[in-house]
Design brief:
Elements (H helix, E strand, L loop, with lengths): L10 H7 L40 H14 L3 E5 L2 H9 L7 E5 L4 H14 L3 E5 L4 H7 L4 E7 L11 H11 L2 E5 L4 H4 L9 E5 L13 E5 L5 H14 L5 H12 L1 H21 L6 E5 L9 H7 L6 E6 L2 H11 L4 E2 L9 E3 L11 H7 L5 E5 L5 H14 L2
Parallel strand pairs: 2-3, 2-4, 4-5, 5-6, 10-11
Antiparallel strand pairs: 1-7, 6-7, 8-9, 9-12, 11-12
Helix pairs in contact: 2-9, 3-4
Bound molecules: pyridoxal-5'-phosphate.
The site of pyridoxal-5'-phosphate has 16 residues, from helix 3 and helix 4.
């Protein structure tokens, strides 16, 4: 623990100071970027704590300390992308292991499990609906090694009962992994609910400015310490390290995470309520936001999320053609994949993020051709509402 960081400080304070001290050499208030790949040693086994940047880098070390603090983890590793963090976590498993995964996971995680690791590591993956406790209970076997889920899920924003999933995993000694990308530790703290490992695509809210790819895996202090040791060993063994310039950018972004998340959440709540009030006039057949009382798991969301995040999904009347037209016509919501940046985005999951899924699977999940997903940014809410009003009321 450094002088400026204390675990008694509020999240907002820790986002700025955790793990960080002015540079002892120069007094710089911001962590320097150490691009060196190698570090001198004074003699055999004698160095200043660093030897080679893959196994440890001073800028990355500060970032990892800050990330661990914010997530309430004992260890966090900073990886070049969210998917590299996910791959590193999957390396914890023995070949042939049984994994139970949420059916509505991020498309890239589905691809990694189903098209890569089931072949290269023989993983046996059961995809089930984690929003239905009975399905999770039935899918967990005595030999299940890992349960992998997201909440709220993408793009349908289904809310998973985290404590229930943890209970099911503990019954058989399996590890739980929660992809917390949609929430960030500001909105939801899975490790405090008993989850073993949180993963992030830090590309999204943690960085928040759509100018970086980054990933994180963070291990709970209540999990067998061997898991944290092993994840660090695996990061070095597979080379899944974030480069120092990216580390510095992410460290800066984390300082405004609470400010951004607060605005993302209040904007999204206001927009969801506005869309709901005008649902018929706007031709919205289905509107999904966990902060609306109409969300089937609103009560659960209230229990386990401190804020409902920035993601809103909606099915529009008029099929794919109208969905496409709406996305093209919005002025402030850019028509692009990804999420979590300060700028608002709109995307069409069936042809973009979820195009990797076979069409029957998309239909079964409810990722329909007329579904649009909004990532609400931090612009002024009145401008975002005016943009939605003019497009949704104008396109029949
Ligand atoms: C984007 C995303 C990922 C993948 O992360 P990358 O940084 O793109 O590799 C994983 N999970 C979720 C929920 C995501 O949104």
């Amino acid at each position: 623990m450094t002088k400026r960081s204390s675990n008694r400080d509020a999240f907002e304070t820790r986002a700025i100071h955790a793990g960080q001290e002015p540079d002892p050499l120069t007094g710089a208030v911001v962590t320097p970027i150490y691009t060196a790949s190698t570090f001198v040693q004074d003699g055999i086994g004698e160095n200043k704590g660093f030897m080679y940047s893959r196994s440890g880098n001073p800028t990355r070390q500060v970032l990892e300390a800050c990330l661990a603090d914010l997530e309430g983890a004992v260890t966090a590793i900073a990886c070049p992308t969210g998917l590299s963090a996910a791959s590193t976590i999957l390396e914890l498993l023995e070949s042939g292991a049984h994994v139970v995964a949420h059916h509505d996971v991020y498309g890239g995680i589905y691809r990694l499990l189903e098209l890569v690791r089931s072949r290269s590591a023989g993983l046996d993956v059961s995809f089930v609906n984690f929003a239905d406790p009975a399905e999770v209970e039935a899918a967990v076997r005595p030999d299940t090694a890992m349960l992998w889920f997201e909440t709220p899920s993408n793009p349908l924003l289904e809310v998973v009962d985290i404590e229930f999933v943890v209970k099911q995993a503990r019954r058989v000694g399996a590890l739980t992994v929660c992809d917390n990308t949609f929430c960030s530790p500001y909105c939801q703290r899975p490790l405090e609910m008993g989850v073993d490992i949180v993963m992030h695509s830090a590309t999204k809210f943690l960085n928040g400015h759509s100018d970086l790819l980054a990933g994180v895996a963070a291990v709970s202090p209540n999990t067998d310490p061997k898991v944290a040791e092993k994840i660090r060993f695996l990061q070095n063994s597979t080379g899944a390290v974030m480069d120092p310039i990216a580390c510095s950018t992410l460290l800066r972004s984390l300082k405004t995470l609470p400010l951004r998340m607060e605005r993302h959440g209040s904007n999204a709540q206001a927009i969801a309520e506005f869309l709901e009030q005008n649902q018929d006039r706007f031709g919205i057949s289905k509107l999904i936001y966990p902060g609306l009382a109409s969300h089937p798991q609103h009560e659960l969301a209230k229990r386990q999320m401190s804020s409902f995040g920035a993601m809103i999904s909606m099915e529009v009347d008029g099929g794919q053609a109208r969905a496409d037209k709406i996305a093209q016509s919005l002025r402030l919501f850019a028509y692009a994949v990804s999420l979590g940046g300060v700028e608002s985005l709109v995307q069409h999951p069936a042809s973009m993020t979820h195009a990797i899924l076979p069409p029957e699977r998309r239909q079964k999940l409810g990722v329909t051709d007329n579904l649009l997903r909004l990532s609400v940014g931090v612009e002024h809410v009145d401008d975002l509402i005016a943009d939605l009003e003019s497009v949704l009321s104008g396109i029949e």
